[in-house]
Amino acid sequence: MIEERRGLRLSGLLVVALLIAVVVTAAGIFPFHQILGQQDSVSLAERQLEALQDENRRLEAEVAALQTPEEVERLARERFGLVRPGEISYVVVAPEGDVPLAPEPEPVLERDETPWWRDLWDFMTGGDVSDGDG
Predict the structure, then answer these.
(1) Which one is predicted more confidently, 125 or 1?
(2) What is the mean pLDDT of residues 87-108?
(3) CB-side exposure of 127: number of CA atoms within 13 Å?
(4) Would you say 33 and 129 are in contact if contact means Cβ atoms under 8 Å apart?
């Protein structure tokens, strides 16, 4: 009788310890998953900032180029067909029967057929959050 109680008490303690281990593991996985997501958000924001800075530098160079008389003349000739006095301008007109080519259709993306256990593993290790580039 005493052996049965001791066995029940021991198995009850084992169940409680196992339950605590599962809770602690889950408590560690979910914040880890959030941390990975936040790190990816930060790296994405840094890449976007770098791209915007590059675009800003390009636009500043374009503004500087537009301040020159040569660039103003080039744009006037290209966009507005302006010519200097004494020059002759020609305009090429496409025949009426020409039909412009239709744009190619967008490619259809196929559904990702990864098994459920792979999705679960990626979730637990943060693989679904990180893009794999580092």
Answers:
(1) 125
(2) 76
(3) 10
(4) yes
Helix (H, G, I), strand (E, B) or coil at 6: helix
* Contact between 43 and 132 (Cβ < 8 Å): no
Confidence of residue 1 (pLDDT cuts 50, 70, 90): low
Are the C-beta atoms of 129 and 41 separated by less than 8 Å? no
Q: Which of 46, 67, 54 is nearest to 134 (CA)?
A: 46
The CB-based long-range contact list for 66-72 (8 Å cut-off, 24+ gap) reads none
CA distance 121 to 119: 5
In angstroms, the CA 85 to CA 68 distance is 21
Mean pLDDT of the chain, nearest integer: 80
> What's this model's pTM, rounded to 2 decimal places?
0.41
Per DSSP, the residues of 65-118 read HHTSHHHHHHHHHHHH----TT---------TT--PPPPPPPPPPPPP---HHH
Q: Reply yes or no on whether the pLDDT at 132 is more than 60.
A: no
